[in-house]
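In practice, a research group might receive sequence data for several interacting partners and want a quick structural hypothesis before committing to experiments. The following worked case mirrors that situation: the sequences arrive first, and a predicted assembly follows.
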Amino acid sequence: MDAIRIRGGGPLQGSVRISGAKNAALPILCATLLSDGASCLRNVPALRDIDTTAALLRFLGRNVVVAAPRVDVAAGSSVRPEAPYELVKQMRASVLVLGPLVARFGHARVSLPGGCQIGARPIDQHLKGLKAMGCTIRLERGYVIAEGPGGRGRLRANEIYFDIPTVTGTENLMMAAALARGRTTLINCAREPEVEELGRVLNKMGAEVDGAGTDVIHVRGSERGELAPFDHAIIPDRIEAGTYMVAAAMCEGGDVVLDGAELGDMEALVAKMRAAGVEIASEGRSIRVRRRGPLRPVDVTTTPHPGFPTDMQAQFLVLMSRAHGESVVTETIFENRFMHVPELQRMGANIALRGNTAIVKGVDQLYGASVMATDLRASASLVIAGLVADQETEVRRVYHIDRGYERIEEKLRAVGANIERVRGAES
Ligand code: EPZ
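A structural hypothesis for the assembly, expressed as tokens:
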């Protein structure tokens, strides 16, 4: 297994190109199952999760060519509406084939994703919605068996209320509704920009989606029972952009331009960064991040979009570990998303955990150490900490980071970081 070694140093300066959004690419690639035509997705990042999705689509019978930033998906000889545990266990988002498969083929057998490092993450809302569209759902030996009305019939539109705004739940039901008979209304939806992006693509494919990006979405299903293919370039990754924003602000003198990033999708994060004393300005199709003074402590609470993103909690917490004073970071989305804290404490950070809250007292210095990545965003926070720690930090189990960050060590080196990947560092 690879590791990443970082020698802490001075401020980052220069520019970084922001890749396409992982969490937009995954559902959109699954949406290709709604059409037999040849679809093309552009601006796709080269990530392990994209490869896993491609492998899943191939297993389902699709011809998939991944040549990042382009992915081509076309119908193969036959379809096997089944997502096996071996693939789903690698990436929970594989559950996003469930809605398209049962809507398109009348039945599907998809492995339950099971829990993950950051929380139990049930899919009850996904299943509740499919039942409301006329599906029968059985759970059998770790698999969800979904069948359309009357065995393999077309799904029926309905009004569905989410007990909790769920990103992939909203996306799964939008895709199912795109082939259901009639007009579905989804209420209390997730409003993330990635949900909105999926809405744009479904409209390109011939569905009628209104309100994506708001808490009420209407979807009129296609009468034809199949959608048209698409050619689409996805939005930039706001979480990748946010991660580099924090990296740039870790040191006084930091001055980094994020090419291709859009402020519009990052308001909550930008507001907190500015409150901490970081200068953030839009420059054409880029964002410039500068730090020219001390960091002020700022409290954050993660909430669904447009609130402060949980996927930026770990990175922001590292920033606050260097602020002048005490800040409180509260995680309300996932019940176990502070796995990075014990590793940061090993680097000398002063953080106390109280249930779903971290009390962070800023320190003058972090110390290089060997640390263990536990999940995607936690691993990003450890790399950021290593950028300002003294001596050397070695982040292990970086396969987590390869799931969601394209060529992170190259991008950081381009703005002055002393960072390298050590192949096979761990047995
Ligand atoms: C998406 O996960 C993202 N993944 C996550 O990003 C992100 O952290 C999360 O949304 C929240 O923003 C993708 O888009 C592929 P949820 P998702 O369903 O859809 C509970 C990253 O780092 N819930 O919105 O799985 C759930 O347990 C990843 O890129 C139910 O109770 O998250 C959680 O507490 C990590 N029942 C809350 O809702 C359900 O049926 C929000 O989860 C569904 C969810």
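Before designing any experiment, note the following. The two ends are 6 Å apart (CA to CA). The longest strand covers residues 62-67.
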